[in-house]
Amino acid sequence: MRVFLKIAMAGSLCCWASSAMILAQDFRVGTAKRDITPAEPIRLAGYANRLKPSEGVAEPIFTRALAIEDASGARSVLATVELVGVTRAFTESIADRLKAQLGVDRSRFMIVASHTHNGPLVHGSLDDQLTLTPQELEVIKRHTEKMADQVFGVASDALSRLEPARLFFGHGKAAFAVNRRIYTPKGMNFGANPDGLVDHDVPVLRVEGPDGQVRGIVFGYACHGTTLGGEYNFLGGDWPGFAQKYLEQAYPGAAALFVTGCAGDADPQPRRKPLFVPEHGLEMAGAVAAAFSRGLTPVRGPLRAAFERVVLEQAPAPSREEFEKRLKDKDTFIQRHARRYLEKLDRGEKLIAGYEAPVQVWRFGSDLTLVALSGEVVVDYALRLKRELGADKLWVAAYANDVFAYVASNRILLEGGYEADYSMYYYDFPTRWATSVEETLVKAVRELVAKTSD
Q1: Which of 71, 118, 399, 453 could form a disulfide with 236 if both were Cys (CB 3.0 to 4.6 A apart)?
Q2: CA distance linking residue 397 with residue 10, whole number of Å
Q3: Are 50 and 84 in contact (CB under 8 A)?
């Protein structure tokens, strides 16, 4: 409780300091929030060892939206959802409606999943992790359609509440993310690697009204929402859900939106006990409040946006003989994967050789560049982009627009392990990525950053 009061006090002090600054109000901003908690038991995403629908609700889950209009009248919407991921079909159904009904360009709509492993399964995402009954699949389809409506609704709500606002950007730090890849005589495995690469940066965007009151908080961190394991079968937002909850309690009237970073190879530590969930959430809320108290930099417009899909190439697919060999593997997921691909070959289908991955950039004048990568991107990408583009004014997010697979770096492809290889069985790709993927993504980001700098 003492720590929580410090959060509120830090916010009050920062509110006074920042509101004392005389700044042009380059933006109008609106926020909104809607509950997306399923009304019935549903299969949860994130762990393959869960074999039945959810057993209850530990914490409600939400979608939130931040709508921004710059001085030119261009309107942009950031939506966040407390889900393990979103699919291309889910995202584009919302983007199409925003364009047709509200005039929001595709480049100006961004949706980011918190990657909680206690959220409901989204239809079309990781379906092959689980053996679903027809009844369970129908529940998932029905709730996915409802959530798409809810995300569109929350975006519409935020756009209808645009009011003059000022934006401020800065960085905090949190230490509970730990690299999860450990070296063993049998190769890479899961664990806690204190010497592994990790990104402890907490980027923070603060939205103030003309009176200095906090109206919105956007914050990020590169860490899985996996405090609890697959044996825990209750709905909830894991630590990001608690962090948002605590910030909204500390700053009444503000919406707190969590934007996941390049968290593909980072887990929270400690783990496996429910009490660690609010503990990590409180540490994150404190990191945001500490960034407020240290002072933030004003962010001006215009907000320029760019979006494109880049083809990530895959390594050569396994031969028929290799798939047939995998039918005898002890792992049922490998067997199931091999059987699906043998059936595709029997039908004469051409195996996919790549994937069109969304890449998006929002650039706020010369003060802040937000890069949104799709997929479960590993930490190497964020660290490299910060080295090459400068860390102070850069925010690198992942799990945005389409969570289609892990996106390994060249280093991780060389080392192998879950993120490079085994995860592709779950995400239903025939094989791992080609070594061209890292350069492809980095090149695309650099080009979009240049495009938005004009």
Answers
A1: 118
A2: 26
A3: no
